[in-house]
TrEMBL record:
One Gene Ontology term of the molecular function aspect: hydrolase activity
Protein name per the record: Zn-dependent hydrolase
Keywords from the UniProt entry: Hydrolase
A Pfam family matched in the record: Lactamase_B
UniProt xrefs under PANTHER family: CONSERVED PROTEIN, HYDROXYACYLGLUTATHIONE HYDROLASE GLOC
Length: 218
């Protein structure tokens, strides 16, 4: 089956099979949060991005192999609602952005700053700090040596625009600047974008609209 990234709460995971990494996407909870399970093909080690809303669904996805780590993209409660239960069940090490960890009521084992790396087995992800949606949001970039890049953007980039900045012009300017300079200017059009809610997209699909987003202010 071809991966589309279109998932529904209560529905099955969609699996993106890459040469070195398997990415399983599920939607959970009343806010249609996306959670992503990454599995290194060489070692079978697993990492979860955003333990959102529904521990039972996430633990079923994780399976008997467990997870080594869980990364929380930002401090908003819909993205860590199942974190305590998942960590208790798996013993996973927790990661979060250095400026958002204080807003997450589960202890963060590893504080992540811009440019830091997070590993799952033999696969390396690079964190980018994106300011505006929250003070310490992080995106995770996997630069596939066999193909194009993949970026997990939390709530900082979606199909059709950047994340919510609640009408704050300064926060919007910070967010769109960071997304443009740290994501769009660093990665090619083929880069696959996995957002915190809803459908996936590519940087190529969104790039032509950057000026339009700036002009409208959201």
């Amino acid at each position: 089956m071809t991966y589309s990234g279109a998932v529904k709460v209560g529905g099955p995971a969609d699996v993106h099979e890459l040469p070195d990494l398997m990415i399983s996407k599920v939607a959970v909870g009343p806010m249609n949060n996306n959670a992503y399970l990454l599995r290194c093909r060489a070692t079978d080690e697993q990492l979860l991005i955003d333990a959102a809303a529904d521990a039972a669904t996430l633990l079923n996805l994780i399976g008997d192999d467990g997870i080594a780590s869980v990364v929380t993209t930002h401090r908003h409660g819909d993205h860590w609602g199942a974190l305590a239960e998942v960590v208790e069940a798996t013993g996973a090490r927790t990661y979060a952005g250095v400026h958002d960890a204080e807003g997450i009521p589960v202890a963060t084992d590893v504080l992540v700053a811009d440019g830091d790396t997070v590993t799952v087995g033999r696969v390396t992800l690079t964190a980018r700090h994106l300011v505006g949606h929250t003070p310490g949001s992080i995106a995770l970039i996997y630069d596939d040596p066999h193909g194009h890049a993949h970026v997990f953007t939390g709530d900082c980039l979606f199909p059709g625009g950047v994340g919510n900045t609640w009408g704050d012009p300064k926060a919007f300017e910070q967010l769109i600047d960071d997304v443009q300079h740290k994501i769009f200017e660093q990665l090619p059009d083929e880069t696959w974008v996995y957002p915190g809610h809803g459908n996936d997209t590519t940087l190529g699909a969104e790039r032509p609209h950057l000026a339009e987003w700036r002009e409208r202010g959201w």
